[in-house]
Amino acid sequence: MSYRHSVVKELKESLHRKRILFIVFAFCLFYLFYASQKASYSFTNSLSLFTFFLENLLPMTFPLLAVFIYLGKFSAELNHRFIFYTRTRMALGKTIISKFLVNFMLTFAVFFLYVFITFLYAFYIDPFFGLTEYFNPDMTVAEMEKDRLERHTFTQLLVYGDFIYGVLYSTWVGVNAAVWSSFGFLLLLVMNRSYVALTIPYLAYLAQVFFFGNPTLQPYRFSFSVFPYGFTQQEIWTAFIPLGALVIICLALSLYVRLKFRTLDNFL
């Protein structure tokens, strides 16, 4: 069985109706939560509305949500030795790589769509129907545009157009979510207790916030690199440093799994 066929097959098995409905329901709860708080806030433009729908709750639960989109299924398969039994049809390494790719793609797609749909609502749908009354600050048009471009990290991209900003920032959130999910995936392969492996990414995310409390280190927090709200604008390259560190950790875990591959059967 080719990689392409096995990935497509795994995607079809993962995208069953119950999982899709659960994901949609979970993100609808986020929208309902923010909608219930909306009346207590004032907005100056579409960017402030977009930021409102992404700050607070989502940054607090980001790696937890990323990990559980697919890894609950994968964890159950490991616990029930399902992957071990599939070796009669496909090599173990190919099975794991296929599931890794599906985990990455599915997590990326879910978070990309969530952020991009939010962007479309804030920048196009809401203004078209006049659903939000915007507060006009005592600023000139030039000053308001300057404020938009300097609001927080990644808003520099607005100079290339709103839509480009929306696509690129949604992609950024999706990639980060996929890498966090990959971290959890690899931990499941090297740890015997799945519930510990699935909580370590979230604990690491929270611990880094505590240890990076110094103002000079705050721009390099995992949370600020993805959701840079409530902090002064940084150069975009600074956001790649936390992601790069996480990628290095994932590569190290991948190497460990590869080196221990001969004993992986005992784990499974």
TrEMBL record:
The chain crosses the membrane at residues 20-37, 57-79, 100-124, 163-188, 195-216, 236-257. The keyword Transmembrane helix applies. The keyword Membrane applies. Keywords: Membrane, Transmembrane, Transmembrane helix. This is ABC-2 family transporter. It comes from Aureibacillus halotolerans.
